[in-house]
Write a structure and sequence with these properties.
The structure is a homodimer of 214-residue chains. The first copy, chain A, is α+β, with helices and mostly antiparallel strands. The first copy, chain A, contains nine helices and four strands; from the N terminus they run βαβαββααααααα. In chain A, helix 1 packs across helix 7, helix 4 runs antiparallel to helix 6 and helix 4 runs parallel beside helix 7. The longest helix of chain A has 25 residues.
């Protein structure tokens, strides 16, 4: 059986849950409580020296890390339905949209980064919230511009079926809503997120639907 | 002709230069001066709404963004020599190592982030340097542990030929050296970086070898 070590509110685990659901795969969930610091416990460090979630353990016992690498692995082993388009330029576009979220927005708003801001740099609550919202606004402005200008966009980030970029977009929208970011300037992002959330694969992956949600 | 819009000291552009060189491809370089703010000028924004480098313009005029997406594109269009191993688990491992650098270390030490720390949060020079070194140390500890423990490691991050993980590792080592981080705890990382730098594809891609180096 495939096991996902994750946390209901982790964006990266949320991405992998969507990918598993889109592929129609069964999996066990093993929660790692990030608020209690379980990610830095020996059991999780043995799975991932980075002390992060998610880790996907395959039925053969291989432990995979990094959410985008896991999603691409799933796409290679279970090709249907595809998470990437068939043409190289389309794949480059979808990967770039996914990485806009995963390499430019999300890393700056990680729990460990917010803790460093407060603990090491003495940043107050208001400035911390400002930091959080700043990187979402900067990234979403660029993402909205790309989704609006580029011909590849459709009902989803690329065409009319969900893929790797949507898998990154929806958890980032969830975070933005949680921190009450103003999403009114991003109608295209909101529209795509709504189309995604209407699908069972995305709805079942939502943080509030997880066994460890509290 | 393929054109790379980049900057000699940009890690992300450095990655793409290594990939182009490993594939033996000819390309023009069009420098975008990040210190002068040219990345936010109209010409660069038209290429990339994110206002970042690199952008790779193919001979057909398609403009590609995000360094890892560009490297995977090059690997698909020009399969030899491969940047990823042939097996899905190996590919997942190499992508995870690459993303450890590209999603966990590098985004936190970007120029725009350092500017925000100083300008918006009033962080001083010493604390800024502490931030920079903290994220490299945290990431390199995990990377060193993985490279040491995992059977896939060899002369390079994965086996005995250079690939996507090495393409990310070497520019990150360059940054660490530039900011005088202590690399003595990471013998495996230093050894792999030395093996890479001995190859012409990496040496030709080094910041100091670029036309806009100043």
């Amino acid at each position: 059986m495939t096991t996902l070590y994750g946390y209901f509110r982790s964006s990266a685990a949320y991405r992998v849950r969507i990918a598993l659901n889109l592929k129609g795969l069964d999996y066990d969930q093993a929660p790692v409580n990030l608020v209690k610091g379980e990610q830095r416990g020996d059991a999780n460090l043995a799975r991932n020296a980075q002390g992060l979630v998610p880790v996907l353990e395959t039925s053969e016992g291989t432990q995979l890390t990094q959410s985008l690498a896991i999603c691409e692995y799933l796409d290679e082993i279970y090709p249907e339905p595809p998470l990437l388009p068939a043409d190289a330029e389309g794949r480059a576009r979808v990967r770039a949209l996914a990485q806009l979220v995963a390499c430019e927005i999300h890393p700056l708003n990680n729990l460990k980064v917010l803790k460093y801001l407060v603990g090491e740099l003495g940043v107050g609550d208001e400035a911390k919230l400002g930091w959080y919202r700043h990187w979402i606004a900067e990234g979403f402005q660029a993402l909205e511009a790309k989704l609006t200008a580029e011909a590849g966009s459709g009902k989803f980030c690329h065409g009319d079926s969900p893929g790797l970029a949507d898998i990154c977009l929806v958890p980032q929208v969830f975070n933005a809503e949680r921190f009450e970011c103003d999403l009114s300037p991003y109608p295209r992002i909101r529209g795509i997120a709504a189309n995604c959330r209407a699908l069972p694969a995305f709805a079942k992956a939502a943080p509030e639907a997880q066994p460890d949600a509290g």
